[in-house]
Amino acid sequence: MRNFLKSLLLFKEPNKAEKFILKENKQDTETKTGAKDDSHGESKNSETFLNKILGSKQDDKKKEETPEESKQESKIDKKLSKNLAYMKKVYSIPVNGDIILREFDIMVKDRAIPAFILFYDGMTDREIINNYILTPLMLLSNLDIKDDPKSIIHYIKNHLLPQNQLKEARKYVDVIDEINFGGCGIFIDGLDRAFAADVKGWEHRGVERPNSEQVLRGPQEGFTEVIRINTALVRKILKDENLIVEDIIVGKRSKTPCSMLYIKDITNKSLVEEMRRRLKNIKVDYMIDSGELEQLLEESSFSLIPQLMATERPDIVAAHIADGKIGVVVHGSPFVLLAPVTLADLLQSPEDAYVRLPYAHLLRFIRFLGILLSLLLPGLFIAITNFHQEMIPTDLVFAIEASREQVPFPSLIELLLMEVMFELIREAGIRIPGPIGPTLGIIGALILGQAAVEASIVSPILIIIVAVTGIGSFAVPNFALGLSFRVLRFGYIFLGAMAGFLGITAGLFIQGILFVNSKSFGVPITVPTGPKTSASASSNKLIRLPIWKQERRADYLNTINENKQPKVSRKWINYNQNEGKDENEK
Amino acid sequence: MKNKITFGSFEAICITITLITTQLFLNLPRSMMEAAWTAGWLLTVYITVLALILFLVIERLYRPFEGKDLLDLGEYIAGNTGRIIVGLIFIFFFLYINPVILREFCENIKIIALPESPLSFVMLFFITCMIIAAYAGLESIVRFSAIIVPLIAGGYIIIITGALRYCDVSRITPWLGNGPYEIFIKGMPRISVFVGIILVYFLYPFIRKKSLFKTVGYRSIILSGIFFFTGVLVFALVYQYPTGTENFLPIYQLSRLVDYGRFFQRVESMFVIIWVASALLHLSINLFLIPYVFKKTFKLKYYKPLILPFAIIVYALAFFPENLTSTIELEKHFRNFAWLVTFLLPIILLSIAGFVKPVEKKGAGKSE
């Protein structure tokens, strides 16, 4: 407590750590010295600083891992008995129930070579192991082989294991990692190496509709929990060999495979480096969902605005990656992270791009209205009824007053009561088991609302306010941003109750300053409005341009290739074929 | 990003306009009417042209000293002493005007919307926002201004257009008010309404392109001039001379006239949002400048630890005037002399700097 007070009141030297700033691409930074934001002239320092950090981290790593080094470095022995004993010790056989160790003999040239395989039951495909590993090794090895094998290893690898993904390992740790992720380890006597075959075959959910981001128009596929299916879903949309899927493992125990998705010749290199640096420097025990990774990657944990976007939809990820952002897929999570993200991205629904322009704007403005209502309506109601009654037309004042006559509470208590009740129903609605959950929640709310009015605990007008606020909050397309507005709404209620419009404006001012101040991977959240970037960047932001007018990628992403499509993307519009060609094609 | 500068011209113009035009929401139209009677609008045009000419002179003189603010110039002329003298002038300048404006706004908001709340309570909201904004820094304030200044301008236009149907041209006759001498000679110190242009000198190190300094200055003055002109003119067209001088908060009085049909008759409270937003921006940038100039004057390492002490000083100073009238008097005194700091001081400094050789070559030219 004392320390906390001290840190609050006394001056503390600010941390010297450099903040990440999205730089221009290397060629540009070399020619132009001025960097953006307030870090001009420090790029060199930051680089050396970064190197220092990386260097020191690597040193730390070396020091940390010295005790485990022997385990990591120990090599596979030629004697099978030694290998068997080692693996039994590592996998705690026979205490461990789901690890299967099968010993057998391989017949090569009338010679029986002892061998064993090792795999996890349930994570692997039995058919593959039976038909394509055990059958060839145990039965087909006796077949007459025409060319004389130079060595057993060559013979086994090239003739006896019809596997498309077969790894040859010299260290135990390589085989162990494969087995842990649904592989099959094959050890053979007399060989100082082992094979690891890819036989993954665990139970998983198929590709289904996304739960939280449904659209009427557009693809209906959602991500699943399997990393390779998820990356394939993106690759299925972006059929580009420059789309890189870079694997990084996070978590000491869980060893969760994560993949960084970006397009090599579009995404800013420093952004890719920064993401790689952050991912590689996460030292946690386990990481289960991308929600945890998001918290480990973001710069400010206390900011009210999400700094990475989580989405269930492959089409959103593909569109953002094609615009120059980075996606992070986490094994075991149907939500893929995207960075950097701006407020405008969070307010967009994929449908905005799929429906025609006039409808898209209608949908978008309705959504903005919903968001504003969900944030401000209760606060404004309190402010107007308590401080600015003159604003309400006389007839309405009478109506409100008549309905409030029987209610014993002040309007603030009344509103808080209903808001808390609504939040409770919403939270409980998710937890109620069975498909009737949400329905029950809404019915509960209706009955509770009506009963509360009849019992004169709240006024009917307040039920309307709370209901409209609730409906508005469902219009927020991003779940995390919706949560943020739900929290802020209570702030506005209190501010409105304290000082009317002055309080609400003060709240908006502080919220605006904090929003403007927060950054996602070096990009200000409120771009392209503040700071204002060039007009091309605002295409497809607050007001959507026609799809043929979205010629350039967002300015703030500093992409390698800024042009998205030629100036004339609808070539058919020109009768004269030559006129339609742009410079590159001529 | 294409813009390699720290701020684009749009952001810089927005924040400068806020700093200049916020007084429109206080009592500028009335003081113009007091000075030139029915010809207040003419006076605004005159001082806008005057400000443009003076800025032209300053901009010309500034050319050799690209990227330096006035403190750097002080140092260039007379070393540390010069810098400290100039710095102290500005610290005094900001410390005088910030509490006065704070007090005026709080008193006005109290009268308009919160008659039962104590002044200290109203002021607490303002000072909290100012402190948070100052901590967030110049970058955040400037960026935020780029978002909300267009909204404030939109609200202002709604007020002005809403009041148009009450206008009567005969109310601004006689055309020359109380005479050309009063307007063109005695009205000269009124150029102090453009005191906010001072921000441009401090933004100079942040605006890295020379040409943008010019654009920001001119556009800010012209746009502010248009706002002043419309405000003063419409006010004079709606409330004729003697009545207008008795009105408290002219633009608020205009907004009270705005009504949209039978249902929305008294929407002036909605304009409180515009009032407060512009006031908060104005006061925040002002509060930010005090520790920033202090830091630069005394070559300190950080300015953030100074924000809270200066905020408390501003908060305390704001209680010094006895009431709103004496606060307005204080502002009037300020407006009589502020042009000395805004226009004369830069011209003097720049003229001297043009002749002398720099005292310390190492120190000069460095900017944040």
What does this structure look like?
By secondary structure, chain A is α+β, with helices and mostly antiparallel strands. Chain A folds into four domains: 77-198, no CATH class; 227-341, no CATH class; 368-508, no CATH class; 535-580, no CATH class. Helices cover 47% and strands 11% of the residues of chain A. Chain A has 21 helices and twelve strands. A five-stranded antiparallel β-sheet of chain A has the order 1-2-4-5-3, with helices on both faces. Chain A has a five-stranded antiparallel β-sheet with strand order 6-7-9-10-8, with helices on both faces. A two-stranded antiparallel sheet of chain A has the order 11-12. In chain A, strand 9 (326-330) and strand 10 (336-339) form a beta hairpin. Chain A is elongated. Chain B is mainly α. Chain B has a single domain (9-355), classed as Amino acid/polyamine transporter I (Up-down Bundle). Chain B is 71% helix and 0% strand. Chain B contains 14 helices and no strands. Chain B has helices at residues 9-21, 28-36, 40-62, 70-112, 119-136, 138-163, 180-185, 198-203, 210-238, 241-246, 250-257, 270-297, 304-317, 324-355. The radius of gyration of chain B is 21 Å and the shape is globular. The two termini of chain B are 21 Å apart. The model of chain B is unreliable at 1-5 and 361-368 (pLDDT under 50). Classes of the chains: A alpha+beta (586), B mainly alpha (368). Chains A and B meet through helix 20 of A and helix 5, helix 6 and helix 12 of B.
Highlighted features:
heterodimer; A: 586 residues; alpha+beta; five-stranded antiparallel β-sheet; 47% helix; 11% strand; B: 368 residues; mainly alpha; Amino acid/polyamine transporter I; 14 helices
Overview in brief:
The complex is a heterodimer of chains A (586) and B (368). By secondary structure, chain A is of the alpha+beta class.
